[in-house]
Flagellar hook-associated protein FlgL
Amino acid sequence: MRITNNTLTGNYLRNLSKNLKNMQKYQDQLSSGKEVSRPSDNPMVVSRVMNLDTRLRENEQFKTNIDDALGWSSTADGALASASGTLLRARDLIIYGANGTLSDTDRSALVDEVKMLQGQLSQLFNTNYDGRYIFGGQETTNPPFTMQDGVMTYGGDQEDLQREIAPKVGITLPSNGSTFTNVQGTAVGNESLGSLLQNVEKALESGDLKALSGDLLGDMDKHIDNVIRFRSKMGAVYNRLESARERNDAENLNMTEILSKSEDIDLAEKMMQYSTMSTVYQASLATGAKILQSSLLDYLR
């Protein structure tokens, strides 16, 4: 095979370009800190990195959902705790009102306090979190409880809220206010908490001691138990959300580590590779200077 000057020059330029391209690759990796920057660098690695990045973004959204639900549940529990205390005070007033020795002035004062307690309950049940009412079901933009003719009335939605906390995993946030303000099996007219308190007011005004110590007291206990059960359900949801957040944090940590191993460079290794390739490139330039310096004029001298 005949080796000409053009052959030497062509081979040299191809090798020089290859060396320069390799050196540029290491420069890009050092400047970006990433193993790959485009699909053509390593399609398999890029595909894995993109998949991990997508999963991390999804997990971040799930974490946002979980944190929002935790805040929602915590706010709801606080409101229900205050409501339980208010109902216990109403129960004490029923027992006190069943005392036959009270004067009309005393009973009038009790009626006023029961009315105040009903308004207080309405305010507690209209608690909102981040601008959304927590006991209105899926209707979160309007106050679910209103006072109509002195009676607390629920006007919210009948469905609880749903939150997605992991891939294909959802959780129900108890938010239907009618669940804890209505009780079946009570005396006629006392199914709703608002109606019960109104009937307590009427019994106090008329001095109906039998109703106060009988149905009204028994139904108040049922309503208190109902609120406590709802609060316990909310507590169970909170505990599950905390566990979900721990799992989410662990998954994020694991995927972040895997992603780092897939796309982040070993700085010391890349510096060494770049230094080696830089030396090779400089040697190529030096070799090229000897190959390209010969010309026809050199032979004619």
Summary: Residues 54-258 form a domain with the f41 fragment of flagellin, N-terminal domain fold (CATH 1.20.1330.10).
